[in-house]
Inverse folding.
């Protein structure tokens, strides 16, 4: 038991605490269903900070660049068409280990696999309208924040 406790304590200590900024998009379905407030409420309740925020109607070039890694996949055209179909909230979110914290909070990409308590597990049903996008890792976060906030984040 003592050994287990020591291992657990060490595991917690070994988990790096890194201040990160990640990108969150609320997709047109989330905006249309008036879930902007609910999603931001959950992010802020988690002790994460919104450091950039705007409501935009993204053009095709921006969305194709955003989803560049998915180019050639069967769902690429559908997801680009969907994201350009209406208004989107783009947010830069900052906090300790924010990338993983937000991904976990949003739940699995397919809402049918998302755990209850997550945004998708509570509020979504379809992978085509899974309400949000959030950056997958540090490289994606840096690239995506720069892409959606090319003017820079407000100080
Ligand atoms: P997102 O996290 O924004 O990343 C790519 C999006 O494509 C994804 O959420 C889904 O909304 C959409 N998508 C549709 N079908 C699939 C699929 N089979 N695998 C992954 N993403 C998909």
């Amino acid at each position: 038991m003592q050994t287990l406790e020591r291992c657990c304590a060490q595991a917690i200590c070994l988990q790096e605490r890194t201040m990160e900024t990640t990108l969150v998009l609320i997709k047109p379905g989330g905006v249309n269903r008036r879930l902007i407030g609910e999603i931001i409420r959950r992010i802020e309740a988690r002790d994460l900070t919104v450091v950039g925020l705007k409501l935009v109607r993204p053009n095709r070039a921006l969305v194709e660049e955003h989803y560049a890694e998915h180019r050639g996949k069967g769902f690429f055209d559908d997801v680009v068409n969907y994201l350009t179909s209406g208004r989107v909230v783009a947010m830069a979110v900052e906090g300790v280990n924010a990338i993983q914290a937000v991904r976990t909070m949003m739940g699995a990409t397919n809402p049918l696999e998302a755990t209850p308590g997550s945004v998708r597990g509570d509020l979504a049903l379809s992978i085509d309208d899974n309400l949000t996008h959030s950056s997958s890792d540090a490289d994606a976060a840096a690239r995506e924040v720069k892409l959606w906030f090319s003017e820079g984040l407000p100080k």
Summary: The two ends are 48 Å apart (CA to CA). Strands lie at 19-26, 49-56, 88-96, 132-134. The domain at 17-148 is CATH 3.30.70.141 (Alpha-Beta Plaits).
